[in-house]
Design brief:
single chain, about 60% helix, about 0% strand
Length: about 120
Amino acid sequence: MTIADRIRNRRLELGLSVDDLANLLHKNRATVYRYESNYIKSYSPEVMESLAKALHTTPAYFYGYDDADRLPETEQAKNDDIRLLIRGLNKLSPAQVEQAKNMMRIMFAEYADYFEE
């Protein structure tokens, strides 16, 4: 199995669309398609870290070192909630996204550093 196959399979396991993953990575959908089509032969460490974070796994998983190298089942429920939130955010206007971000900043003021861009 190639890195591209593992990226695509993991995205599908999490129920994410190409657009969902593109948004998580702050890339466009064409980039995700290139990642998943085996077009790219060498990935930078930064790309692998970003993909691993977005897909809740580790870079080692993509290289085939450990297929079980993913979050435990207790974390999967959180992933499902995150996926639903992402899909909801994708349907909002830019102004509504800003409102949602502001509400989250208020709700999670003690974790403000997570919301810095």
